[in-house]
Amino acid sequence: MKIDRYEFPDDLYYDREHNWARVEDHLMTQGMSDLGQALAGEIVFVEMPRVGRVVRQGEPFMSLESGKWVGRIRAMASGKIVAANEEIEGECSLINQSPYDKGWLAQIELTDPAELTSLMRPDAAFAEFIAAERKKYGK
Amino acid sequence: MKFYDLGHVPWLHSQLIYHALPRLQREALIILAPAEPYVCIGYHQDAEQEVDLDYCRVHPVRPACQVADVGPGAIPVFRREVGGGAVYLDGQQIFYQLVIHRDNPLVPRGKEAFYRHFLAPVVETYRQVGVEARYRPVNDIVTAAGRKITGTGAADIGDYQILVGNLILDFDYDTMVRVLRVPDEKYRDKVFTTLRENLTTLRRELGLVPPYQELVDRLAHQFAPLVGGLEPAELDQAVYDKVAELTPRFTAEEWLFKRGKRHAQRQVHIATGVDVLRRVHKAPGGLIRGDSVLRQGRLSDVSLSGDFFFYPAEKLGALEEALEGIPPQEVEAVIARFYAAEGIESPGVTPADLAQVLQPYGAT
Fold it and tell me: Distance of CA B202 to CAs B110, B205, B251, Å?
């Protein structure tokens, strides 16, 4: 789905924090959506999460900085962090340039895949949510 | 919203109170000043790379709160959970610290809108005392001459958004530049000059410093309508207990020396759009060192040095002049044209090598 200039791939889950998740079996790859990276602005640093850490849905597990603002990334679902994208540590501009591909953030092994039902899919309701968010943020 | 007008407080409290409040699920506006000087680094910075810790350990200022000193009689060094760079803070700066729930309808959405909205009281306070200040995106307040007159930063802590900043009454430029870790004195001089040019104070603008309480009252008066009114309050025991609980964590060496941004080169951020650069590059023909100041995307004060050959040598100064005002991305082309026009020879050093030492972080 494309909403104005923002891409939202159809096969992904989204949350209200402007993150995306790609789920294969019990492995969830999480990143920041196209609109999310636009709202963040130029990202100048990302603090990598500790692999092996167990996180709950909604819990902050890593941070990034843009415009002297330290923002937290919250886990889209509960589980154990099994990988972090080391590429973005040295080149965090990848999150801005390639949010769905090279700029992914972390991989989490899900402990409760049922939590995914609380996330959004790119449908009409999601389009309404994005429209409201864009209006709110002036994006 | 609760308003804590705290006056001068122990330096550690000047940081930990605003870290404690979101953990207590409380909104507030805090205005205070630190009773003792200290160095404060940004959440993602690397203390060893940014701060001359040896200098801070032996600098003879009066001891502050011993629990977090890096040594006896030292300038304490603190890592905050807020973004931005290393700063030297003392009692000549009045801190404003806003802690507000992210879902509070009074919070504008978006980073720039948030800064613009909540820095407006600071702009107006400066104006009321005679400084023609204005907001400059993303997070600066500058004078009519374009000099920065506040430092700001923000963070998400739990479900709260934090804005911190200062009214700068006076500023110890010498100590600020001295506590930074720099490659050599030449670079330090450049940072000092650039800082003096780009950061100003109420004393420099007005020739005097308005009374502390007058500034606090004006600031609070301006903030009040933006936060739904202010209710003056005293800090209660729960806040002090939370501060005490947080103290071991925020004063631990593991926290101060937490791994942060590491850069092979040095770049000191002075204000939005102003950075002092030092880059070194080993080319086949020798080591090249580049010093420059990046102002609004254009180079100035360019200096090229090192142990490479450059013929005719007297043209190096002309090349440096030719690079004044050039955007970093155009530097290589300008140098190449200069080489062709002047018949420059520099064995083992190409225009691309020289251009490399005049690029900011992330450009190469």
Answer: 30, 5, 32
**Structure tokens that stand for B93 in this block:** 């700066």
Write the residue in B139, B153, B156 that is nearest to A71 by C-beta. B156
Which of B42, B110, B115 is closest, CB to CB, to A138?
B110
Which domain does B163 fall in, by range? Answer: 2-256
pLDDT in tens, chain B (364 residues): 999 999 999 999 999 999 999 999 999 999 999 999 999 999 999 898 899 999 998 875 544 333 344 445 589 999 999 998 899 999 999 999 999 999 999 999 888 889 999 999 999 999 999 999 999 988 999 999 999 999 999 999 999 999 999 999 999 999 999 999 888 898 899 999 999 999 999 999 999 999 999 999 999 999 999 999 999 999 999 999 999 999 999 999 999 988 776 666 788 888 888 999 988 888 898 889 899 999 999 999 999 988 889 999 889 999 999 999 999 999 999 999 999 999 999 989 999 999 999 998 755 4
User: What pTM value is reported for the model?
Assistant: 0.83
Work out the number of other CB atoms within 10 angstroms of the CB of residue A75.
Answer: 26
Interface pTM, i.e. ipTM: 0.83
Nearest to B110 among A70, A93, A137 (CB): A137
Residues in B closer than 8 angstroms to A19, CB to CB, are: none
| Number of domains chain B contains | 2
Inform me whether the C-beta atom of residue A63 falls under 8 Å from chain B C-beta atoms. yes
Q: Do B112 and A67 touch (CB under 8 A)?
A: yes
**Residue A43: which CATH number?**
2.40.50.100
Confirm whether A124 is domain-assigned. Answer: yes
Q: Which residue of chain B is at minimal alpha-carbon distance from A135?
A: B109
